[in-house]
Every structure is written in C-alpha cells, then in structure tokens.
Amino acid sequence: MQYRTPFHGLVLSSALFTVLISPSFAQAPKDALSGQVSSSEEGAMEGVVVSAKKDGSTITVSVVTDAKGQFHFPASRLENGRYTLSARAAGYDLDGAPAAVIAGGKTANAAVRLKKTQNLPDQMNNAEWLISMPGTEAHKKLMLNCISCHMMTRIVKSTHDTDGFLAVFERMSGYYPGSTPELPQRLKGDVKRANIRGTSDIRLVGDWLSSVNLSKQKTWNYPLKVLPRLKGASTRVIYTEYDLPRALIQPHDVVLDKDGIVWYSDFGQMFLGRMDPKTGKVTEFPIPVTKQDSPRGTLDLEIDREGKIWVGVMYQASVARFDPKTEKFRIWSIPKEWDSDAAQLGHLAVDGSHVDGKVWIKNSDGSRIYRLDPATGAFEDLGAFMNPMSGNRIGSYGIHSDSKNNLYLLDYSAGYIGKLDAKTKKLTVYATPSPNSRPRRGRVDAQDRIWFAEYYANAVGMLDPATGLIKEWKLSTPWSAPYDAVYDNNGYVWTGSMLTDRVARLDVKSGTYVEYPLPRSTNIRRVALDPNAPSTLWIGNNHGASIVKVEPLD
Ligand code: HEC
Fold it and tell me: Is the confidence at residue 17, as pLDDT, over 70?
C-alpha cells in the first residue's frame, strides 16, 4: 500500500454536493469515507443512517451519524470505486445526489445535505401510522394482523367506507400468508384465515378505519408523527445489506450455517436460497411442488447437526430436507388421510433430533403436533393440546426443541408457553406475565431456556424450565410488536420488528435495550445470529428482497 501520495482535490460539478479527498497522512487512514449530515432545520444531525453503494454492486454498507452529525465508513468495508450515497431520517429527503470516489488509500469526504420532505406519508412506517392515527388501543392492535403482507399505507390511503372495509376483511382472509400485492395467492377451496374476521364488533373496526383513511377527507385530519431518531449507543453500528436477484423473493427465515454461508426460505415461492456473504452471490434451489393447486412458499428454516437444511413447505403440506453436499432435496408429505386444503406445515424443530432421531412438525390446521422419523418416513400424530389453565386449545406458532428433544409450543392464540415432554407426551403450561401476549417465535439457549417474542405485549420473554418462571422485558418503542427473539450466549438477546424498521438488542443483566435504526423499510421475521462473529445479527427484508447483517460496534 502506498502511504504517501500527493494531495488530490476532486470537486464534482454539482452545487448540491461536494466530494473532497483529504490530504494524505503518514499512515493508512482508518476511514474510507467520512463526512457530516446536516439540514437547515437542525444543523448537524445525529441518528441519520447513511448508506454507500458502489456502482454496479448488490451490496450496500450503512453507518449512523454521531452526536456531531459525523459518519465514518471504515477502510476495511469499502473497496475502491465510485459510490452513490443515500440517507434515512424520517421527515427528510436528500438535497442533491451525493456520491464519493474512494481511491488510493485515502479518506474520501462527503457532505450530505438533507431538506424537509414533501412526502411524509410515504416515509412513515407502520408504527408511525399507528402512533399518529386516533383510535383505541384495542382497535390499533388488530392492525398487527394487517401488516404482514403490506404496509399500513395501503389501509390509510384507501377510500373504503365501513361496508367497503367489511368486504376487504373478507377478501384479505382468503390470501395465503406469504402473499404480497405483487404476488398474491388465494388459499384453496373455502379455506379462510381468522385474521380479524373473528372480532366481535367487526363493524366498529370498519367504522374506525373509514374514519382514519381517505374516504371522508382529502388528506389525513390528524397530525402525522414520526418516531424520534435514535441517538447515542444506537448510532454505534454498521450494516451490510445484500440485494437478492429477484424483487419477489421474500427471505422469511435467514439462517447461517457453521461455515458462515447464509440460507433463506422464500415465503412466497418454491425455492431455498443460498448466499455467499463474501461475494453476495445467490443460488436458488427449486423445491418440488407436491400439491399443484395449493399456495406455494416456505416458512421455517432449520439446520440440523449434520448441516442439512430443513424447511417447512406450508400449504404444500410437506417438509423438505436439503443436503448441501449433493444439492438434492428429500420431501416428506403428511399422510393423505391427514391432509386437507387447510393443512399448513410452516414450523418444525430439529435442534434436539440427534437425541431420538425425530423431527417435530406442526400442522396449523387444528394445531396438531406431529413427529417424523426421517429414517423410516413414519409420521406420528400427537394431536392437539388442551390448555388446562384456559380450557382452550394451544394454538402454537413457533415450535422449538430443547437438548432432550422436548418441545416448546408458543401459544400465539393467547399468552402461554407449553412444554411437551418427548417421552411421556405430557404438556406443562406456563402463563406469560402479560395476558394475551401472543408469543410468536423464539429460540432455546444452551441452558434449555426458551427466549421468545411477545407480539402483542411489545416484549421479549424467557421461560426458565428449572424454576418454571417467565420473565419479560418490554421494548420502549411503541408498536415494536417483536416477531422473534434469540439469545446470543454473551448476555444479549436480539429481536426485530415488522413495524418500526428497527432491531433491538437486550442486555439481560441490566435489562436495557439498544435499538438500531435500519437503512430502509424492512419487514423482519426471523432473527438469527452469526455463529462465527459475536453478537452479529442477520435478518431478511421480507418486503424488500434483501438480507441485512447488523454489527454493533460496542
Ligand atoms: C395474507 C396477506 C394479507 C393480509 C394479512 C392483509 N392483506 Fe390487505 N392486501 C393483500 C393483497 C395481496 C392485496 C392486493 C390485492 C387486493 O387488493 O386484494 C391487499 C390490498 C389491500 C388494500 C388495498 C386494496 C383495496 O381494496 O383498497 C387494503 C386497503 C388492504 N389490503 C387492507 C387490509 C387490512 C385492513 C388487513 C387486515 C385485516 C389486511 N389488508 C391484511 C394481502 C393481505
């Protein structure tokens, strides 16, 4: 590397931005690119996410501005080339088109100017709409059932009256869960998902929504509020975002194998994806269709001890196992007599399979729990489980096995965690401190404790089976509605949101979270750790066809 180079000044011919290459130093610089974000409204701005994307690349690197509005891209993260810069701060747009050229081992410098946006509604995330709109907490909570396939924007921009909304609710309940407006799929036959149809005062929900949309007004008659930008520790982070090759890919579960290769399930299509994080290269492996007329797509992705990749193939009523060495799938479909149009095998558990060879599978149709013996292909139906505490059936979402291949059931229909003993087939039920917390997904740690996200209680929970106690940690940002949680064995728990475009890291000892603002709109489901890097998180951008790595600097 050349350390002593003559001074270069490079001024691009736009009044709106400048790029200067600073004088060289006696040593290689720490930063490839640095600069400041400012606006006339605020001056120097903290908590702005600044992104740099090299021309022609599929990889974007982002950092967050500090208290002085400064940002720093480490030299190790940006190779030589021309980069387009962008910035995210709610309420603001870029003023100009900042770019930077990185060359010759010097620190490039860029000034990023922001101006007030003319289009706040399109910048607002789901949480910001829920915060802004008038309405009861109970009604707003129902919207947690409406933001998985598209954003709140569609609802608040619509012009439906009450009856119009009742028809919309009906239509929405007939979509496959991995539908998007870009790739809708109808459920087969007369299968309907509960969604918010079961709500007793459903007309009132229609009345309410038609009072906050544009049916009676040209523009919203309530102030549009955005979340304050995150500051301090939340700015100490670096993101790497990898674009996927097709816009319709929905990377629902993103999981790394022990070699650091990234695998993802595609929620709306029949592919298993593999990505090399060194190059961003993606390979899609087509999964065999077993039920031609049923919706296509996969959800849960798990890696077993042998490194084989398992996916729950949803309404195809099958599970698929992929061998990365031979690059071949094996498919197990449930027995014909158990199958139905509503059969849905989204979730499975393989973490304890080495104990007795069995894989746990859930069929959402009737909340039935199965065990598959992959060696013989035999399925065992353990049936549905009643909850003695509530008298209702356990309606589990995620299922997760412990080191003895016992199974945790996360009761998404209420607020309970069930633990199913693999040997006695007996279920023990624990209530979460918050009622109706709707635990969704999580992970078992090395001590067989289960960490989980409480979608309706804005919290992360943990059940320690040794004491039978559940602890909860509430997120401070309203409408975080976490979907998944994972303990990283260093004392931190990670979670992510489908509503706030934030991920959060809980320090279990102090009970405090640090939230990190994401570079762009990111509908997050599974959160997964990097097995080879401490406290590094990987997530899929379910509506944005990308995979994001989040590395805190502290
Ligand atoms: C399972 C996926 C899914 C869920 C969940 C979902 N939607 Fe939709 N939604 C769609 C799709 C697909 C479209 C585009 C096709 C269409 O309009 O039917 C859409 C479009 C819309 C539109 C715009 C079209 C129109 O008729 O105005 C509105 C409004 C809407 N949805 C409201 C809702 C509400 C309210 C909920 C919660 C009760 C909801 N959606 C839940 C899939 C879903």
Answer: no
